[in-house]
Amino acid sequence: MESNFVDYVKIYCRSGKGGRGSMHLHRAKYQPNGGPDGGDGGRGGNIYLRGNHNYWTLLHLRYERHVFAGHGGNGGKSLLHGADGQDCYIDVPCGTVAYDAETGKYICDVTEDGQVVMLLKGGRGGKGNWHFRTATNQTPRYAQPGEPMQEMMVILELKLLADVGLVGFPNAGKSTLLSAVSSAKPKIANYPFTTMEPSLGIVPYRDNQSFVMADIPGIIEGAAEGKGLGLRFLRHIERNSLLLFMVPGDSDDIKKEYEVLLGELEKFNPQMLNKHRVLAITKSDLLDDELIDLLSVDLPTDLPVVFISAVAGKGIQELKDCLWKELNSESNKLQAVSEGGSIIHRDREVRILDQDFEEWEPDFEEETDEDILDLEDIEILDD
User: Fold this and answer.
1) How far apart are CA 165 and CA 177, in angstroms?
2) 46-104 pLDDT, tens per residue?
3) Helices 174-181 and 316-327 sit at what angle, rounded to 10 degrees?
4) In this structure, are 3 and 126 located in the same domain?
């Protein structure tokens, strides 16, 4: 069954070209030698990205492969200005990032509802010959052409907005924890890579307060080189204020696994190491108090550590208190203010983009100047 969660689409975008200016000389009864009266061409339509909180995936754009803005109309006689091309708005969920598919360069970011960002600018309309009249050239027989359109193959990526992001190896208990602390129902099974798509859950807290938790597919050592599911889903926790690392209590070396996860995050985006972190030792119902004390000696000391068991409900409230404390700490708030709520988006590798869309081929016909309405061909009736 195909999932409805789509966080990665490729679209061909083309703005409108500007209409050409009119080269027209005024002709009327008893005025055989009238001056220039050619109008300006209209501007081409722009393409915008617009944040919409009613969308939570890019599913509505999966089969919309082409987005074309309207072309500007040509200028006409009697200083008639050509019609402006129709602008095109692409509604996307908050947290969408746009990249150039040809070069992998970062273009723009939409993070707020109602935020409008220009993706491609339409061409300016050309000036009519009326603008070029001078004392020595009173009947200019030339006009400006309109500026050409802009076109670009665009990659749209969705990065989920959440407060806490879960990071861990496959089968570390991330989905089990999310289902235990929220009403989310992620798929849970006893085999690796059960989670194939991110999940969001709202975690209730004291005094009718809450925070959002994001669960992503597990990562393994070497994910930066493409092993497992790679680092594709790690972008969903780039915006999180807090990272919750989850390591099973029955692991051979808890500290080593934590350092491996931290190293993979650094390879993906070094800025993520500046976020606040909490370490949760899962499946602690298999450990007795003596073993917990023994394991605590070798655990990292630079971050809070909580022993939990989502199945038995052990340590869940303690974990919530720890997460809430870290989310509302002064240092975390100061970091959010200093970053301005934004992240540093790294350019994408073209090789990876080509692999994701190997079979994608645009299917459209090129338009010519004949498709643009020429106002000189419209008969104007005299009063």
Assistant:
1) 12
2) 999 999 999 888 888 888 889 999 999 999 988 999 999 999 999 999 889 999 988 88
3) 90
4) yes
Domain span at 254 = 164-346
Number of domain units in the chain = 2
Residue whose C-alpha is closest to residue 55's, from 101, 7, 102: 7
How many whole angstroms separate alpha carbon 243 and alpha carbon 304?
11
Q: What whole-number distance in Å separates Cα of residue 110 and Cα of residue 288?
A: 48
Q: What is the pLDDT of residues 316-329, one digit of tens each?
A: 888 889 888 888 87
Instruction: Indicate left, alpha or beta for 208 from its phi (over 0: left) and psi (-120 to 50: alpha).
Output: left
Token match 């939990």: residue?
Answer: 308
Residues 295, 364 within the same domain? no
Same domain, 177 and 226: yes
